[in-house]
Amino acid sequence: MAIDEALGPKDKAALQDRVEIPAGLWTRCESCGHIVYEKEVAEALNVCPECGHHRRVDARTRVAQLVDADTFEEFAADLTSTDPLKFTDRLPYKERLEREQKKTGEVDAVIIGKAFIRGRGVILAVMNPKFIMASMGAVVGEKITRAVERALEEGLPLIVVTASGGARMQEGMISLVQMAKTSAALARFDDAGGLYVVVASDPTTAGVAASFASLGDVIIAEPKAMIGFAGPRVIANTINAELPEGFQTAEFMLEHGFIDRIVDRGQLRSELARVIDYCGK
Q: Which pLDDT band, with edges at 50, 70 and 90, does 20 fall under?
């Protein structure tokens, strides 16, 4: 929340009388509530300098944070949904897609490409939580599959940064079968001895968590990322039980063996390079 949105009319007027503050220069951290300097947050890769909260970032920002400068070569960039069900809720699906495309500048919720991370060649897929919450439809499933196939073809490690609310309901069963499609592609990649690394960011849930996000040879998560299938409220109501403290956080998942490491965003590039070197890929 921007500071000018957090202040009441009287406080805002009083503040403007004292000093003119450009809009967006300071913001309130959504986690700890501290007022933070936006430039400082940006320099820390969108991590709060007060509490370490990792903000959600779009796919292009994530790519820029991870790869060596000017090395990302995107492919399959033109894939778009055909709206197979002619689905309508509050908006026709086609119109919703057009709005999201205009808002984000992306055609769908994942981008894939070849890149270098500290000099190591990789195939990289990055999900965009700002595009319909990075829900997985046919395009996402196809792009992840193509990334797997390209990594297999070129003998490169595959890195996927997940951030998803799960299956895209507007595509129904077509969305759900992407779980099997991506998992089958990864099984072939594993049989060929390929290295697959998952970076789970907030949130990694539902159909994505139940498929390619859980199949990594190494699964890294960002601090406090939400990782799991259904939401805590749904699970609690289904099993009629109180859930453990911190349920579905990265820290809980690490303690119970579902992920391998928790790594701060500022250390991800170095950690990915170390994993690639250690695994000899």
A: low
